[in-house]
């Protein structure tokens, strides 16, 4: 009888909530219809009217398009909660705020202050809330309601556990099959996560948490939260989101739009330097050196090296007269140009102007001309003289960041000069052919160089006294051929000039993007960044407003962080704060235990981590002579079971040398094969980890690999398991 009464109440609860939710979707449809109509009307007007009218119309069209995109994006799970307050008030919480035509609020945005209690109220600390209701919907249909009764007496009577808010809704979300795209967690954000999401925007917030503790989810929701609360400030400067790889960015690219936000720029570190393609991986030895802060001094010295003083004074004939490029003049003019404090390529104009002035003066004195007109004419002659231009270029050579780096790492004499502070064996590690492709560790160096070099001449329209690309390339060739301080005759230079020229490849178009500064920067997998990479990010946000999430136990980069204070203190001094997330929402308890036991044995700095779920049969280990065929067989078995059921993702994580054989044995692109590093930040229903001892050459790599599955970890090996791993 009691049960029946319960069921009836549940059904009537559902029906009542369905009515409310229907009303919300009706309002959503109305708003979408209005925005559609307005956009249609604007488009109908066509491109007529004054330029001002047109640009106003364009602005409105963009506004309506954005609004429609926002309303479309919140269709799924528009409303997911209800709060009943002690004073009898009740309101619904959803992805966006909605009001009716009379401005009566219908739905409260999850980011609004009033909605905070939905995530933070507990039985011990209920605030004004007596009941929190979670609504589960499929499409527009309400399929379940679940109440957290926060009235302590009622709660005690029910003997309920208050550890996880909305446990049913949470466990349903955690148990859902993975699709390969990350979803938002807005309906089930937990209290410790909410505190991070809503933390004030000042300074740097560092969030340390074990695998699956929701760092990525929290970082994305915080970006949405900050955009909502500081819209004016952030919309003009933007929010930058840095992720470890393009695969990872694809994995998360759905989340912000589903939260109604399209205003963040997400990219990798390399994506911040336009025109640079990172295609190579380099040995740890050189990557580690390139990550050190002292590389900023190396780059500085390399740039400075392009400002040269000739070994001897040099005579140049102009229209039958001789002028002398004097070493003392060059030194003096360089000093003056440097004191202006502009970047190298931009300061070159001052140096060139100064030198042209000095040479003109020599002609003026020789010819004894006194009229301004004659003087101006002579100056033009000097400026237009090719030999003069070449000589000036040799003393102050404009150069792109890419070329600077290629030269620096391929020419021992340049490296010896610029990187004097490094021991010889470390300099040797940096040497590589000039045509070698760029690596990830080069990116911050390119950015540093771009900062010191500034715009290439002609980047924003060439001035008359600036050299052409051909002249620059030519002078560069000369320097490449003759090395340090190479003085060659004007005739030799001219002869080579005829031999054809190459254009410099400068990513000028995107230059203005490179120097853009953001209102807030969110960094994911932040433990991987080197000190040089941090320098690069600090330039992107002079206000030092950062959200930094990562796990120092998962660090795989040799130049990365193993202890936050070591990295953060020099960057932010006292302006940073550390928070921890302690519950893993991804991995089942048995996987968490196995991974943590291994990590502790390998002396990784693991944080405390509890798993939110216990699942049976969550781990398995198979030893076999043929790990390739065995792994492929196991992966197929799971994939087939998923195909026959309600879906799910299977992935294989293995050392790179086994990838070819594994792909062949799998025979289908439907099951992805990753290295441990490639799998970073991703998750799968089943992860098949092959030859863990080999992956464990870098213990952080194995820790990452073991913590990818949401349901089952399969370990396959021919070699013995690494120490500390027991399944
Ligand atoms: N409060 C929550 N409600 C529902 N799902 C959650 C919640 N918190 C996290 N998750 C889910 O747990 C999984 C792991 O989250 P996430 O990838 O953000 O963790 P992470 O800490 O970044 O992990 P890693 O260190 O491995 O990169 C994701 O599927 C995420 O959606």
From TrEMBL:
Domain of life: Bacteria
Domain UvrD-like helicase ATP-binding positions: 188-588
Keyword match Metal-binding: no
Binding-site positions, ATP: 209-216
Keywords in alphabetical order: ATP-binding, Helicase, Hydrolase, Nucleotide-binding
Protein name, as recorded: AAA family ATPase
Organism for this UniProt entry: Demequina litoralis
């Amino acid at each position: 009888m009691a049960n029946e009464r319960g069921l009836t109440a549940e059904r009537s609860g559902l029906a009542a909530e369905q009515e409310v939710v229907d009303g919300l979707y009706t309002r959503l449809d109305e708003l979408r219809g209005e925005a559609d109509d307005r956009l249609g009307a604007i488009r109908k007007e066509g491109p007529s009217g004054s330029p001002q009218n047109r640009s106003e119309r364009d602005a409105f069209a963009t506004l309506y398009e954005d609004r429609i995109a926002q309303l479309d994006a919140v269709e799924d799970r528009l409303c997911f909660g209800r709060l009943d307050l002690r004073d009898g008030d009740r309101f619904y919480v959803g992805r966006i705020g909605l009001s009716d035509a009379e401005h009566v609020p219908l739905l409260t945005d999850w980011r609004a202050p009033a909605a905070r209690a939905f995530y933070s109220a507990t039985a011990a600390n209920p605030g004004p809330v007596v009941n929190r209701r979670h609504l589960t919907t499929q499409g527009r249909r309400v399929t379940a309601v679940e109440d957290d009764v926060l009235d302590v007496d009622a709660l005690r009577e029910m003997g309920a556990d208050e550890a996880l808010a909305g446990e049913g809704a949470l466990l349903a979300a955690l148990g859902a099959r993975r699709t390969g795209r990350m979803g938002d967690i807005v309906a089930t954000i937990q209290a410790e996560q909410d505190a991070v999401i809503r933390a004030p925007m000042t300074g740097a917030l560092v969030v340390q948490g074990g695998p699956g503790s929701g760092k990525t989810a929290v970082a994305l929701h915080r970006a949405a939260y900050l955009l909502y609360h500081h819209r004016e400030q952030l919309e003009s400067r933007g929010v930058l989101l840095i992720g470890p790889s393009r695969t990872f960015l694809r994995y998360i690219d759905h989340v912000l739009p589903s939260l109604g936000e399209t205003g963040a720029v997400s990219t990798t570190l390399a994506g911040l330097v336009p025109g640079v393609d990172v295609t190579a991986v380099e040995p740890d030895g050189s990557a580690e050196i390139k990550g050190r802060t002292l590389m900023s001094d190396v780059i500085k010295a390399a740039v400075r090296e392009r400002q040269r003083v000739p070994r001897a004074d040099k005579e140049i004939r102009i229209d039958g007269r001789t002028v002398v490029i004097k070493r003392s003049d060059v030194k003096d003019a360089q000093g003056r140009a440097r004191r202006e404090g502009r970047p190298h390529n931009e300061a070159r104009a001052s140096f060139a102007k100064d030198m042209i002035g000095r040479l003109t003066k020599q002609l003026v004195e020789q010819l004894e001309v006194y009229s301004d007109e004659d003087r101006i004419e002579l100056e033009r002659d000097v400026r237009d003289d090719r030999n003069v231009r070449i000589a000036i270029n040799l003393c102050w050579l404009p150069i792109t960041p890419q070329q600077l780096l290629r030269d620096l790492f391929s020419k021992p004499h340049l490296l010896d000069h610029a990187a004097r502070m490094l021991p010889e064996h470390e300099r040797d590690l940096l040497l590589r052919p000039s045509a070698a492709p760029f690596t990830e560790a080069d990116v911050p160096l390119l950015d540093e160089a771009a900062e010191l070099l500034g715009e290439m001449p002609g980047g924003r329209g060439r001035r008359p006294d600036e050299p052409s690309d051909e002249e620059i390339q030519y002078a560069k060739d000369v320097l490449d051929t003759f090395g340090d301080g190479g003085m060659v005759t004007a005739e030799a230079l001219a002869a080579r000039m005829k031999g054809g020229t190459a254009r410099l490849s400068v990513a000028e178009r995107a230059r203005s993007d490179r120097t853009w500064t953001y209102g807030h920067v969110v960094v994911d997998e932040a433990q991987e960044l080197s000190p040089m990479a941090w320098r690069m990010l600090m330039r992107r946000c002079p206000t030092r407003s950062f959200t930094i999430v990562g796990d120092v136990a998962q660090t795989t980069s040799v130049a990365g962080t193993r202890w936050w204070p070591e990295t953060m203190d020099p960057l932010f001094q006292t302006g940073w704060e550390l928070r921890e997330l302690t519950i893993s929402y991804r991995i089942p308890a048995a996987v968490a235990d196995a991974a943590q036991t291994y990590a502790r044995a390998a002396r990784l700095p693991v944080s405390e981590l509890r798993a939110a779920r216990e699942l049976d049969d969550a781990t398995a280990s198979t030893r076999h002579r043929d790990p390739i065929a065995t792994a492929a067989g196991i992966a197929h078995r799971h994939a087939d079971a998923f195909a026959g059921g309600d879906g799910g993702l299977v992935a294989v994580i293995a050392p790179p040398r086994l990838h070819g054989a594994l792909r062949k044995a799998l025979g289908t692109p439907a099951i992805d094969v990753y290295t441990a590093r490639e799998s970073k930040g991703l998750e799968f229903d089943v992860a098949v980890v092959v030859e863990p001892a080999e992956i464990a050459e870098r213990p952080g790599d194995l820790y990452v690999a073991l913590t990818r599955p949401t349901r089952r970890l399969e370990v396959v090996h021919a070699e013995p398991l690494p120490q500390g791993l027991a399944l």
